[in-house]
């Protein structure tokens, strides 16, 4: 019996059914949030370690064995620092911005299926919900840039807003391809639609290959990560939108960025690599496959950062509008044709 | 009961934030209140089990349109004192127009047409009801021709908007990335062998 069912059974005779339902939902949320926050903390360490080894350095190795306590030391340091609110800033919005950045990044996890029955909210329009919430993250950045009353922060916010709005369109079209192929907006159904006898080759990455690549690159751009991190380009505009933030307010932006990275990795795994499906039909499915795939994409984020130089701003815009958008539109039509003619082995109904 | 509480929370949020949009001084704050108004109306639509429309409202209006709105509003230097000049002069006309609008709105969406005796409360749909599917079937089967006409009109509007911005010949010195990505190293770089000078 799962621990949650056990809790439900113990509480049932003691409390009203609606209260039990709320307690169970809160426990489920905690079961997602706590590992996610730990994952975020250790992604920061993994990033420093991975980039360190790629640059023939060791990376953090002083705090704890092999530097394993470094994220905790960082968190303690940031919590003890003073929160500075610049003069002439819009105080309420300045403090609201980090919350607006982190909130959507966490809320989107509600619909992510971790296993065939492991999902917090199994809603019909899950894909649309995810798309809507990822598009809200930009508010944190714009409001931070504007409320800081600083030129650099404002420039960073403007760059980031234009970039995110542009790449969202390519991202949305890539997901249109997925929903046409899966005939559903529900994330669980999308994974089930990728189940087939061919294992790894029946997943959507093969028939939707260009959309897969474009979705992940647009995801990197959406999270403002290298090589698309012009919104914080430290050589031009110091640190972009969060230049005026210190202490925990800065840490929230940091958490939001890493939570978004993990979210994009998880979504790519769900949409194109079959989520919790096993790559070989003789090995059982399970959450470990989902975590493995997510981890793989997360590693790509770090690898990109260590490898590519930053894009120039007009090149970013050109890539999004003139290359990704036409490819996705053409491929969505192709996918529709494949589905209509039931191309084997993926789209046989 | 719980749904009623939610309805009143969202409904009052819509009314309050919509009022703030037109009352507040700072244009950026006004735009953010408009975002809140969109968000709360999406909540109201969710209560009507129109989840596709609700999420599409957040996705399109909050996620894209209002971001561009904020983008523009933040760059503008709006002098509110100038905008408020002549307020007293326009008050009579404004009152006349708003009273007229209120009356016509009330006669359309008031109790005569939308009262509880005319339209019963919405029955909850069965759990396998799929708003997205119902909308899709309605749009692409029942109303395909009006939908296509609307699409063509939108396309014309897009083309018109783009041509409006292209009417001047561009005299800028902006680099064209299309040419830049085509450059190969042998176009720009020549490797030559330089012999060392002989010492005397």
Description:
The complex is a heterodimer of chains A (349) and B (200). Helices cover 66% and strands 0% of the residues of chain A. Chain A is mostly helical. Chain A is globular and about 60 Å long. With 200 residues, chain B is mostly helical. Chain B is built from ten helices and no strands. Chain B has helices at residues 2-23, 27-47, 51-75, 80-83, 87-109, 111-114, 131-142, 144-165, 177-180, 185-188. Chain B is extended and about 110 Å long. The N and C termini of chain B lie far apart (103 Å). At the A-B interface, helix 5, helix 6 and helix 12 of A face helix 2, helix 3 and helix 9 of B.
Task: Compile the SSE list and pairings.
The complex is a heterodimer of chains A (349) and B (200).
Chain A: H1 3-11, H2 17-54, H3 70-80, H4 91-107, H5 126-147, H6 151-182, H7 187-193, H8 209-222, H9 234-237, H10 247-272, H11 287-307, H12 313-340
Helix pairs in contact in A: 1-2, 2-3, 2-10, 2-11, 3-10, 4-5, 4-10, 5-6, 6-7, 6-8, 6-12, 8-10, 8-12, 10-11
Chain B: H1 2-23, H2 27-47, H3 51-75, H4 80-83, H5 87-109, H6 111-114, H7 131-142, H8 144-165, H9 177-180, H10 185-188
Helix pairs in contact in B: 1-2, 2-3
């Amino acid at each position: 019996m799962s621990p949650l069912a056990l809790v439900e059974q113990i509480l049932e005779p003691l409390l009203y059914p609606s209260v039990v339902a709320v307690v169970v939902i809160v426990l489920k949320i905690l079961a997602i949030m706590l590992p996610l926050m730990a994952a975020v903390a250790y992604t920061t360490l993994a990033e420093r370690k991975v980039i360190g080894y790629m640059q023939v350095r060791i990376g953090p190795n002083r705090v704890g064995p092999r530097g394993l306590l470094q994220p905790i030391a960082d968190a303690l340091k940031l919590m003890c620092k003073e929160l500075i609110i610049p003069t002439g800033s819009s105080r309420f919005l300045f403090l609201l911005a980090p919350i607006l950045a982190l909130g959507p990044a966490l809320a989107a996890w509600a619909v992510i299926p971790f296993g065939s029955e492991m999902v917090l909210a199994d809603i019909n329009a899950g894909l649309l919900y995810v798309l809507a919430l990822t598009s809200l993250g930009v508010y944190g950045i714009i409001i931070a840039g504007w409320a800081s009353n600083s030129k650099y922060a404002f420039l960073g916010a403007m760059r980031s807003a234009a970039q995110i709005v542009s790449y969202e369109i390519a991202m949305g079209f890539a997901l249109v391809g997925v929903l046409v192929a899966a005939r559903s907006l529900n994330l669980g159904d999308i994974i089930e639609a990728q189940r087939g006898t061919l294992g790894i080759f029946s997943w959507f990455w093969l028939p939707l290959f260009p959309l897969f690549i474009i979705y992940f690159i647009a995801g990197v751009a959406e999270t403002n990560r290298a090589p698309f991190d012009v919104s914080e380009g430290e050589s031009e505009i110091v640190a972009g939108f969060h230049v005026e933030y210190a202490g925990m307010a800065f840490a929230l932006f940091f958490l939001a960025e890493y939570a978004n990275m993990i979210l994009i990795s998880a979504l790519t795994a769900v949409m194109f690599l079959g989520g919790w499906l096993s790559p070989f039909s003789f090995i059982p499915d399970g959450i470990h496959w989902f975590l493995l795939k997510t981890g793989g994409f997360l590693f790509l984020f770090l690898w990109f950062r260590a490898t590519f130089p930053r894009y120039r701003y007009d090149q970013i815009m050109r890539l999004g509008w003139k290359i990704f958008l036409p490819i996705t539109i053409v491929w969505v039509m192709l996918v529709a044709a494949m589905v209509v003619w039931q191309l084997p082995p993926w789209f046989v109904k | 009961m719980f749904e009623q509480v939610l309805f009143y929370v969202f409904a009052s949020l819509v009314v309050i934030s919509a009022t703030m949009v037109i009352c507040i001084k700072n244009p950026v704050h006004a735009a953010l209140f408009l975002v809140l108004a969109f968000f709360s109306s999406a909540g109201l639509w969710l209560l009507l089990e129109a989840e596709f429309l609700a999420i599409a409202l957040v996705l399109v209006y909050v996620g894209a349109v209002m971001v561009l709105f904020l983008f523009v509003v933040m760059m503008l230097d709006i002098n509110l004192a100038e905008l408020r000049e002549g307020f007293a002069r326009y008050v009579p006309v404004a009152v006349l127009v708003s009273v007229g609008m209120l009356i016509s709105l009330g006669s359309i969406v008031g109790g005569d047409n939308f009262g509880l005796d005319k339209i019963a409360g919405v029955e909850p749909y069965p759990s396998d009801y799929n708003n997205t599917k119902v909308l899709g079937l309605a749009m692409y089967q029942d109303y395909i021709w009006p939908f296509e006409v609307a699409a063509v009109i939108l396309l014309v509007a897009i083309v018109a908007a783009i041509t409006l911005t292209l009417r001047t010949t561009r005299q800028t010195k902006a680099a064209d990335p299309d040419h830049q990505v085509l450059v190969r190293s042998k176009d720009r770089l020549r490797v030559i062998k330089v012999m060392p000078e002989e010492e005397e």
